[in-house]
Amino acid sequence: MKLKYTLPIILAIAFCGCKQNNESVLLRLKYKKGEEKTFTLDQNASRAGAMEMHNQIVIAFLVDSVTSDGNYIMTARLKGIKMDSKAGELVEHYDSHDKSTDMDENAQAMDKTLEPAFSAYYDISVNDRGNVVSPFKTSVIGADAPIDMSEIQLIYPEHKVKVGDHWTGSRKNKLLSTVNQYTYTISDITPERVIIKVNADIKGIKALTGDMKAEGEYVIDKANGQLISSRIDVPAKMDLRAVLSVSVE
User: Fold this and answer.
1) Mean per-residue pLDDT for 1-21?
2) A Pfam family name for this chain (predicted)?
3) Structural domain for 67, as ranges
4) Tell me, what CATH number does 241's domain have?
């Protein structure tokens, strides 16, 4: 007779466990005038113990104004760069926070090259979907764009999305003159966050790595559409692996 009472409970648990989050969200950037955000980009690469590399870029953004049509006018400043690499007996290190007198000859040369970038104020504007309206501009000669905005900002779809929905995008690799394809999928929506999975087809150099598949995750603040963190894992051929991650403060 106990089965008569326990069966409804078991069915209720089963159906609750299978319940899917059908909430839809409209992903849009929301910044306030005067808001500041600091992005830390880390790039790690290794090859079966033969080579290790870690690069870090820290860049800060200040929202100068918000236009009536939802564009954010910002000023960016490069706050720090670190580069560490090891290949066999060759070890190299650069940290922009080190004193020049504490740097070796190679690091001093790098520091000199980066002087224009560290002295520059970069103007840039984006809209509420994450599209760059006006790219990085500065009056400092020799100061190149500090980062590619696609590394820290997704372009959001026009419509609302729910768990399981996906959209596609592409990014240009200026160094290789190739175009990489990305597919973004909503994997979870919580009261505070939106979790987005990414799968990418990366065009590589055929003789070295060939084309690669990458996958990762973006964590987005549900309330304002701002990036909280991201991580992309790029396993390649010849035991080479790269991990790209971003954190925001």
Assistant:
1) 50
2) DUF6263
3) 23-248
4) 2.30.230.10
